[in-house]
Amino acid sequence: MARKSFKIKIIIPTVLILVALVVTLNIFLSVRFSALSDTLINEKLITNINSLNLYLDNSIAASRAAAVSMALNPAAITGIRERNTDELLRLFTPTHDLYHINYYTICDSEGVVLARTHEPGNFGDSVLSQQNIQDALAGKVSTYFEEGTVVKVSLRTGSPVYDTDNTLIGVVSAGIRFDSNSAVEQLKDLLNAEVTIFFGDTRIYTTITRDGHSIAGTTLDPRIAEIVITNKQEYSGGAEILGEKYSTFYKPLLNARGEAFAVFFLGTPEAGVMAASNKSIRDGITLGLCGLIVSIVLLFVIISSISKPITRLSGDMDRIAGGNLNIDINVKGDDEIGHLARSFQKVADTISKLHKEINVMIGEHEKGNTDYSLNTEEFRGDYKTLAFSVLKFASFGMRDQLTGIPNRRSFDHRLSWEWKQASSEKTPVSLLIIDIDRFKSYNDAYGHQQGDIALQTVAKIAGQSIRQSIDFIARLDGDEIIVLLPAADSEGAMGIAEKIRAEIGETMIPCAELGALQVTVSIGASTQIPSPGKPVDSLISAADSALYRAKETGRNRVVFSGDAGSSM
Question: Are 331 and 309 in contact (CB under 8 A)?
């Protein structure tokens, strides 16, 4: 059979590995960049949601401040008493910017409009249908999202106006409207996101355009309308608007009757992020291919320089494999190949010596001298035996002999390592301390041997209830079992703790005299995110304090840190 070239056998697998690495790296970077893009989009959406809610809260405060302040203005009271529309317009209109509102509606005690600052010529009609007016005529200051005959979607605060003799003579209603181009454009500048106002399920004002034209007049996706309008719930996530994908947030505006009559929309198109992601992928592929070509050329040069001595060394090893142990390997040098040649020479010498010793031992045994044995101290095989013995001893020293699980020393090493990892990655670490309830009384009543069986059973159940490839269980002093839960938050830790507690409580422990017995456990749980300077002992102390409270409050329960936890 023809022998393959050493260079080919190294270059082809290495090239394949490099190709796999380049492909894997590009896939990894693509996935990470995509995940990062999603994270940035989500964080931006969350920021926009918070900003929108803050904007609405500020709008409520501004509306109430304007309505209440102007209702107490003596000149305004006089204008309302005298039903002087011109005077009211003169007084109220300049205060729009002062209170950051858009309009006032002033009416008398019968709900008849005396003046509208947003439509000075439109007055004399009734606004009793508006809830903020009704509340104000009943003597109450109230704020609602409402629709009106002139303004379809706005925030309105109604404040009662009292004459000098404390007679209710009218209402000042201050409003901030959202149904205008200026309103949505202002919010777009503020939030750096596309903004839309829906009246019902129809877009009445929006910053989204197609081919240079606003998409106002189009309707909301029926699936989202069901959530936001019918079920009156906020919706956030991906949505498609006229064929384009957006990261979106929809907020229903509820009127005084609890009806979702309008909807706020915030959205960020994903096309720009996807374009940047695709460009990064293309750049990564190009860079990877260039690096691959350079690596192959360098690899060929390097392998060519080392193939000759390896070929000679291979010939020498073939002779050794053929049974010629008395050979002088003809490869010199102080580099790795020279070192490898000397190592092979030592192997040949050792095998030759071992062969001779075995022959001597066989000869002695044939003579009847069965006490003769090899002098193993002369061979490197003792290093393996020594390593195995050390490993066995170390294993014995790191494991609890009763329960078969790791001991406190092993736990301390693991906890220190996990704490450093979590501190670096900013992830939580959870801890459970499990203690058998009234274990001393159990031992006194049934004997220490039965107590050992109970402890072994508890350790076994706890070990089966944890995440096998992640979590770590160990025995502390006495009857305490400790469970370390890396990357587990408080909710996950409580779930595992409750599972352990319930399964132990339902398990009957074998007893030679009584057939079976039952024990319960109390569990203290704690979760922390490590930070620089924060001692690892704080996690144990928190769990220990929680265990103490579990014992104090009745046993057979789980208590989380300083909280009440859950119990059965």
Answer: yes
pLDDT for 369 equals 31
- Residue 449 makes CB contacts below 8 A (sequence gap 6+) with none
**Distance from CA of residue 320 to its chain's centroid?**
59
26-62: per-residue pLDDT in tens?
Answer: 677 666 656 666 677 788 888 889 999 999 999 999 9
User: 455: part of which helix (H) or strand (E)?
Assistant: helix 448-465
Length of the chain: 568
User: What are the φ/ψ torsions at residue 324 (nearest 5 degrees)?
Assistant: -90, 90
Q: For residues 286 and 292, what is the distance between their CA atoms, to the nearest angstrom? A: 10
Does 390 have pLDDT greater than 50? no
Distance between CA 110 and CA 129 in Å, rounded? 12
In terms of DSSP H, where are the helices of 322-407? Answer: 336-366, 381-397
d(CA 462, CA 471): 11
Amino acid in position 358: I
Give pLDDT, residue 113. 96
Q: What is the pLDDT of residue 234?
A: 93
- Three-state secondary structure of 236-303: EEEEEECCEEEEEEEEEEECCCCCEEEEEEEEEECHHHHHHHHHHHHHHHHHHHHHHHHHHHHHHHHH
Spell out the domains of the chain, with CATH numbers in brackets: 181-269 (3.30.450.20), 325-395 (no CATH), 398-567 (3.30.70.270)
**What φ, ψ does residue 269 adopt, rounded to 5°?**
-65, 140
Report the largest interatomic distance among the alpha carbons of the chain, rounded to a whole angstrom.
Answer: 138
**Per residue, what are the HEC states of 418-436?**
HHHHHHHHCCCEEEEEEEE
Q: Would you call 158 helix, strand, or coil by DSSP?
A: strand
Integer CA distances (angstroms), 509 to 84, 436, 458, 476, 500, in order: 91, 13, 9, 21, 15
Residue 236 structure tokens: 């956030």
Residue 515 pLDDT greater than 90, yes or no: no
Exposure of 383 in the CB half-sphere (CA atoms within 13 A): 2
pTM to 2 decimal places: 0.48
148 touches 130 (CB < 8 A): yes
Average pLDDT of the residues in 104-126: 95
